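Example record used in the benchmark description.
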Amino acid sequence: MFEATTKAFKLIKDPEAFQLLGDETRRRVIYLLRAKEMTVSQIAGELNLTPQAIYHHIRKLRDAGMVEVAREERVDHFIETYYRATAEIFNMSHGSGSSGTYHEEMAGESLKALAKIGLTVREDPTMASRLVEVEKRMDQIGEKQTWAEAIAGLEDVDFFVKQGVDHLAKLLMMSDKEFNEYLNLIKEERKLLRSLTEAPGKAEVVARKT
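Model output (structure tokens):
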């Protein structure tokens, strides 16, 4: 179902995997298991769900090759099974459309979730795809596969520290030209987001008055 380059990266091509990761609970399970090994009970406690519900998701993720058994420990008369994600980074690619569709759905959900923290924005069906395109270009700037693999292979730092190292390394490795492009993309992303807080046409009206 999957192709992998290293333990740190896994390329997902099966379209069924996109459907699996369309479920928020499964995404949260993967997120937790990328950081550390956990039992079903520990995951259930973290996500405030029943162990039965978590096991159902774990089974599907194991069948898809995204979760595996890390180790087993005997506790009294029981065997505790610890799970982990099979990679730290899952890159999704299926033809020319599925991966883009998945990322657009995630961007759309993120925009809707802004309301939950008091940042209400108007709906725009085209905004998710525009944001994904900008972020894709930002990710490509300063990205070096050899550095990414070296960071992922660090054994003495956890997943969250590796994310920070990756960000700092990219900034250090950018040329001045790449850095200026990166800053322009950040400005473009901010402009797109701020446009959602204004009524349609408002910005144009203000511009004409000034």
